[in-house]
């Protein structure tokens, strides 16, 4: 809401087209409109098909179902992350269009088909065990309207696998690197591409990875430039961030 | 080096325009050229004025001086981070154009004036004590050719200061948020802008910030979307990353 | 027990109104009475309806039931925290008035209806997943005789939700802020109200929150003034503390 | 700014008493006024003599001096914490009324004499080595207008020393407990008083206290009720919090 | 085995009372006998009824049963710690005299009744939830031949409970203090008795006790003298140590 | 691929024995062939019977089965670590020769019988509870073609057991030491042998071993020379490393 | 003070031998006398020559000097730990009998010559770098009246050195083991003696000992029985504890 | 000493060729001789020129000088690590042949020239700041008689530098990889060579490397096979280990 809206309102007041009380009420609401993010958020959502997102961890099946039910009354896409199969079944009952990615543990409901971007996000991962995070990231990126290329199982233990796929990685506008254990893949890719790299440590590995802490520290300390890091196993966060960059 | 170059080389062999031995040598070199990054890196540097970067921590004054001396023979800009005043004095002896940012502890030498980008990087910080990291980030961003807007001392303890500067923050193409203590500023800004946010935890604070670990964890766990994180006090890394995004 | 009581006792001895042996016994008991806390505790409990509290974690169903059984012989209210449904069933068998808050995992038994305080404790939380801690805090605060206002789901990722409820938060005599992930809500509220804020980190979040450690450190390092912190997920402790302040 | 102000403004518009443009400008400013904290903060400061606070850690002598210089133009008291002697000397040059507490490392400038509160804050500490934190807390509490009672060197290793001072501790409206090593003093006092206890862990101790982390964890895990905790060595934070409670 | 034994053996060789081969074999065994601990251990065990100890954690039911079966062929008492009920049932099948302490998770088999020591070990604990460790310690101390006095539920949150039992604690030759949460009980008792105190941190408590780490650090940093610490929840280790001291 | 191959190719071009396009394609592939490791890896595998290795943690039963199925088409041995019994059953269905080590959780399939080395790897462990790691290491070492000697249950608490087996340990070409709790066995053996020692910390122990972290730190800090360390519980990694050394 | 004293007092009141006011005063003081530790402490000190102890860390030279000055007015021995040479010089000025152990950083003043105990404390250490802690422990043990035997530089890297000194270690009544790095010496000695072992981790070692944390964890997790642990580098605490045991 | 020696001794006793007392003395000495390591150690040292090693950290200049002085009376080479320049000066006074490596902080004294091995140890490092550890490793490896090849400044940020040097790395018998920050170099090299890799994390890097902990964890969690790890900055330990392998 900008100055023009305010002036229009004031003119309406002056011209007796609107009750002072009504106008006062509307102005009292201004702070939130004026801060604007709600409005913008809503606009962007309608315009771009931005989804509503539900983080299911720590919520009950009932709560998730109710939130989806409410969201369905609005005309936006829906993404639920960390969703159990049980949650999906509950959602499916009220929305037949719901899809479940079992590995990625995401529920997606598409009400507005989005034309994917021409530029793409490369999602690169080190090993088979990282696939759940890859899937969460991919589902997120796609429902946000991005073209996605997945390059999986190219860990540095066999670096030739990585070089064979290097061209597609370097062609991306932004790269997500997902790796557990020591997370060295992020540094290696960071040294090979000149695009922003978003690194996602995963909780995969033997004892002293401490639930992904080893990979997290490794990625934060990367000697390669252009790497930033999100939380452990946070495929959603990486994809959200990558989507912002890809759609700049 | 692409396929066309190879075919040209083979035709030259076929036409006896080149010795088989010479051609063999050239092809043997292919892997590195073909991987290409060295070449590309060099090209990009010449084309864009990308600086050579020296990380001075753990190096002697002598080593820093020697590296700069060698770089001066090449025609690129130079950025030295974590440089002591003593290092600057040694560099100044061999290059009168060297500048020192005392707070940011950077040495910069500009051989190629760069036209700054139209879009800008917003560098936002919480408190006065975070200024050294702000300066390192700003110097880095500028020598990489970016327009920079600094918005300092807008920590969440007095959130109205932040709102007063919100417009300039939201106008940026990418935002760097620098904060110590609990680093909450990153989350608050992440919730207010729809641009990528790169968060830099700083080592500023009372006892239990554990050298910036508190702010680091805080930023990694941000409930706001679109935030990625770099290492503690790593203003350089944030700016390098932001520059990549700003110049996409 | 003050000097006057002692002098009265000695006069009774002198006047043969009391046996020396009896008096000796009474004096031998003095240290504990003189320290006084037991007495005071008891008095306060009777006077104010202060509950007996049972921390059920690590206790067997049998033990909890037995402790409640014993307490029922006294005339005080009872609060059991971290109670499983199985424990509640066992308690229900011996006390039909027992209530169970499933989310908050509390059992409450009210023998003395308390007039709630006029001033109130605001319990503010960031997300739906924090509700169990909210409920534990609310049940505790209410059985301690406080008026409570709950303001939930106002995390900083959408800061306008917080501003919409700011008035009710600022009206409280003391504020409890419950947040997981990066816990930034505590700092933001700390900067907006001028009442004591008690922050409760919760164990909600992705990998690197380390069971609430991230939020804990964040809150301890808050740049806002007037914030103190209790243990992770300790809704009870926060409410007990808030009740003390609210009833000063 | 409440609804009445808005209605008045609108009536002025309707009655042509004010230009639409001017009114629009005024309404556009509403968010900050409406949030109100700046105004309130200022009012409170003038009314109660609340000091401006400077946290000197990580600031240069020059910066501290400049901030003080600016503050002196306003009519409020000033408190600088973590200030070095060198900083004090610089401040002394521009303000002869400045006082320095060498142990507590605080600079205080009193422009408005405050009548201390009748109720008092008890500041209790375990050992001689905790005195710097005691002094920081005391200076803070006093310049915030509170009566303070210090009870030092009453660590639990010789618990009789504590009992000898128990009466004065129990007479306080709020108690600050400052202890390093294992920080057990907080729990013991928490079990003996029925007033809110704010615990401050200090970084004093042998190897495995890890810079105060041992005491911090100890206090957070206290089995006594009514204890909340601030950051390691944060005497200022504890006193600020205690002052809020003492002046409720 | 001392020099005299060797000389006797050599004289037997010289006098042809023993075969050279036999003697060579016996001497070849010397290193172990000479180190002596095996012999001494065996002797002590027979003389004092010292038990064989089995640490069941990480062993299968089958393995535990087999070890006990083998031990039963020797004439010593048996103690199994961290034993599940399933393990006990398996042992019971082959030894009807086996006893199970469900809370302490110990299996004990007494073949040699021991006259308990006159002096006693005091086992003091803070709360009901610490009882499993108390029981493990008590069973261990008793089968090692010690008189034991248990003083439970005397945590510092209600320090008067502790003072009421102080006499029996101070009468012990050595004191074991078992406490979770912040473990302050160890410091308080350490300040009240002049006997060696062995502190056992337990893993009981809210979030930030980190599985007993808080209590462990607290006890290691105790400001009281005369306290040493064993591993978290290690009731067995504390009792073994206490038994050594009690039987000096 | 060496220079000779390139020259041959060029000669074929010159002699029109090969199309320029085909040659160009082949040269374009050079980087990977030239890096050579894939080729070498394959050769070594066929030549030495090196197994394909599958790390099953975090994979589904289906995934493991599919990977094995694919590998069976190649003529190499197969080793699967961290395999559940369910996984083994699935593998058994498609390969009757598969063997399962229940304790070590390994599946092995031998297609090429290997003559074990003459020199051997000694695998030494401290306690019964370390056996799973011992078995994983032994299975790995054996399928890699090594002779193995196991020396178990020789922890330092009864150091005479270790001395009785010292000769066989000192006869090895390389020693693997597997120990939990404080991991002191590695240091003691490191001081007694003059062969490389690979230490494996295990996650066995009471509370403060923090999932093997205590043993890990202990081994990394060993005062004995010649010790290097692998990840917690990583029997596979130790054996792989030992095999490399044993077969030098 | 026991019941008999109280009865005597009451009889004196009854017989008018004492004023009621005086008696009331005396009874009012009872709590502290009745707790008794102060009295006992004083008595023990006079009787046994127990020293007053000053922990100098975090104290100023001035404070240390003043405390010693006050103590000199009493007739007890004095021990100051963690004392700098500067502190010693200040103390020397007011007490010519003061001695300084430079390595152990202790100041000792002996007013009452103590006959050392017949039984002795063995102080065993791993390396030369641990000597400062050895000296602190030895000075403490001696001024507490114990006979001490030092066995230094017998780390497990060369275990034969240890065996050569085993007899003197086994002859002790209690053993202190001081070791840095991985602290394995404690476990080895624990397995070889049947006396209580008090382990002191030291902060000596390469990077990942984390200021003694590695040795601390190692000792807490010792697989040998009979070991308890004190804080890192806390030679004083170990000796105090050992003295208690040695003088039982 | 084997059985044959014992039988010979007994026969000598039987034949009166030796006094019983003398024989008894000889047998009494058996344990240590039989354990044998002292003898073997001495022999190896004389035969191979193995150096005596002094770890100077935590030792005084005086102590280092004295130890060297004593060692000079024996005929072996000497290596002192972590030696300050001041220590070197003191050593130089008593031994003119002493050499100092300023970067590596080692003192070496060569009394027995060793023919270096034909096979070599490759010492690979990531950056200039890792050079001190490289030098310590190289000095150690060389005085232990090994041929050494250094390949420095080949960190993964510019992976082409590494490929250019790959041949010399792959030609080694054993590889030492030294890297700070995220230590990814170890994984990359581990995936490219089929020789044992010993990884040394260094303490170089920005904030969240926590003194080398990040690189340490990274290396322990390496997804590449054949990597084992030594302590942070422990160039000596890596080289000692590598020497053992190189000389197998």
From TrEMBL, chains A, B, C, D, E, F, G, H:
GO molecular function (one): hydrolase activity
Name by which UniProt lists this protein: 1-(5-phosphoribosyl)-5-amino-4-imidazole-carboxylate carboxylase
A biological process from GO: 'de novo' IMP biosynthetic process
PurE domain sequence ranges: 119-248
Superkingdom per UniProt: Bacteria
NCBIfam families: LarB (NF033503)
SMART domains, per database record: AIRC (SM01001)
InterPro entries the UniProt entry points to: P2CMN_synthase_LarB, PurE_dom
